[in-house]
Amino acid sequence: MKRTLLIIGYWTLSVILVTGILCSTEYGFSEALFVSTTFLPVAIAFKFGLTKIDFSDKREGIKNLVFLSLFVLTSSFLLIHIANIVIRIQRNDPYLRGFDIPDVLLNPIFICFILLFLLAGDYFLGQLVASHIEEDVPQSITFTSDRQSTTLLYDEIMYIESNDTEVWIHATDNRKFRNKTPISSWENLLGSNFVRTHRSFLVNRSHCSSIEKDAIAIGEERIPISRKYKESVSHAFQNC
Question: How far is CA 71 from the centre of its chain?
Fold first, then answer.
């Protein structure tokens, strides 16, 4: 509940701050507030779009990031133009006489700055909440595997393995489930008890039986530790 209230409070405050910036143009307060709200759906779509991009293949990840960015900018300009059409109608000026979109809202650098400002604040708030506020953690997760809905308890998931365009969820009792969600998205969904050891592996700390220099023992499997993740793995498994 605390997390939800903080998130709502953050986005409300962000809209008010953007409104204050736009009030320095030709907009009145209500008009500036209306235009400011158009940034919210685009910023939120960008946030969740990023979680779907897998950078294990850097070239493919960068390409998807470029496409997502172009989509976000195009959507922003479209929503801003729609908002301004509504404002012109409210001003009884539907034929564009005496009122144009402020130049600042036609500047892609300004649009990117606003979106990055919103996303950066949301990111740091998420880090703060994760560090200082305890929330009820879901005990299970539901996903699609081979066109069937599957539900597993978090404790049943031993590790997750990324294999090209597929992800395999390795569970207790030698169960395996195939899924299309990128491993980076699984990392965000499962939380801090699951630790990335390699670009292709995400492991459940609860199933760690031992840790070696370059691998972690999960059941009978040895999960590799890449150089990139050695420090974070060492910190996460220091009591393992």
Answer: 16
Residue 156: other Cβ atoms inside 10 A = 17
pTM of the model: 0.57
DSSP state at residue 212:
-
**Cβ neighbours of residue 236 under 8 Å, at least 6 residues apart?**
195, 205
Q: Please, are residues 168 and 176 in contact by the beta-carbon 8 Å criterion?
A: yes
For residue 204, which amino acid is it? N
Contact 49, 28 (CB under 8 A): no
For the chain, the domains span 2-132, 140-236
> Quick check: helix, strand or coil at residue 192?
coil
The number of beta carbons lying within 10 Å of the beta carbon of residue 203 is 28
CB 114 within 8 A of CB 72: no
What CATH fold (topology level) applies to the domain 140-236? OB fold (Dihydrolipoamide Acetyltransferase, E2P) (2.40.50)
pLDDT tens for each residue of 123-164:
887 777 665 655 555 688 899 998 899 999 999 999 999 987
CA angle 110, 113, 119 (to 5 degrees): 145
